[in-house]
């Protein structure tokens, strides 16, 4: 499968990608725990059907020490007992933030308050930006049918 667009070969996309990758690095350096970041990125990508991001974040999470059991259960996190309450709150916020078109009210107060019980303001800001960032990247990749399977952990660091 070939991508419809080579982001790295296009001058405009290349310039934009430099900035986007800077945002990605900034989020990686945030105080939001790495495991939470990868689980959220993976779940948002699953919802959006972004194969290349699922590939990337599964491999990044594995490289960071995440277990295959937890990675395999992200799609069914509500029924899985392997996630902390903080991770569950982040995943719930990520799902509601990703499915805003499906829920007229957006992210509900109860979901926000649950996340705020586990994360401070800086971590919440990073979580919101991560969910928003992943949704944007997922959409660009899905629209252009970016292929998955060739990502190597650390490739964009």
Automatic annotation (TrEMBL):
Keywords: Oxidoreductase, Peroxidase
Pfam families, alphabetized: CMD (PF02627)
Protein name per UniProt: AhpD family alkylhydroperoxidase
Carboxymuconolactone decarboxylase-like domain: residues covered: 26-96
Species: Kitasatospora kifunensis (Streptomyces kifunensis)
Cross-referenced Gene3D superfamilies: AhpD-like
Recorded GO MF terms: peroxiredoxin activity
UniProt superkingdom: Bacteria
